[in-house]
């Protein structure tokens, strides 16, 4: 897919004319956009004689490139006419959805399940990051829905600024399949329920 600007085939005149710019979509997964590197991209671009050329070009991807961002590859647009220079290729970035993380600007969002015990007493749990694993400290007396931040664990900034952060939303998971002893233990635990648990709903 390409978008052309400038001359069109069949336009008159013998003056040197610059080739049109070509725009193509380049899909990346989240890890590719975070680490950068090189990606091959198939394009179709106008030739000087009015036909079209199909080829594969190499696109250098800066680490932390944003969804919707554009990367310019000089000279890989349409061919020039009558000795004119070629146009440029503009690769528009599309980042595919990730099964675990959600992207919000340069920040990453993730939901992490924790047990009632971990939320009540506090814990250290391992969570995934784009470059491996990290240890998250859960404070005691943590409610479901609390959001914690791991600074600098989001996407890097291709201009050299600070990286984004990783925001972790905790989701408390209750025990399932309790036997009689488990139900009895949980019932005994009810004396520690917060007082007036739902009073705010009726104010």
Question: Can you put this structure into words, describing what you see?
Answer:
This protein is mainly beta and about 200 residues long. Helices cover about 10% and strands about 35% of the residues. The protein has a four-stranded mixed β-sheet with strand order 6-7-11-10. The longest helix is centred in the C-terminal third of the chain and has 10 residues, at about 180-190. The chain is rod-shaped, with a radius of gyration of 27 Å.
Rounded radius of gyration (Å): 27 Å
Mean pLDDT level: 91
Number of β-strand runs? 11
Strand order of the largest sheet: 6-7-11-10
What percent of residues adopt helix (DSSP H or I)?
Answer: 10-25%
Q: Uncertain spans, ≥5 residues at pLDDT below 50?
A: 1-10
Strand proportion, as a percent range, falls in 35-45%
Give the overall silhouette: rod-shaped
- Treating each run of at least 4 consecutive H or I residues as one helix, how many helices? 3
Please state the oligomeric state of the protein chains shown: single chain
Biggest beta sheet summary: 4 strands, mixed
Sequence of secondary-structure elements? EHEEEEEEHEEEEH
Distance between the termini: 57 Å
**Which class do the helix and strand fractions yield?**
mainly beta
Short description:
By secondary structure, the protein is mainly β.
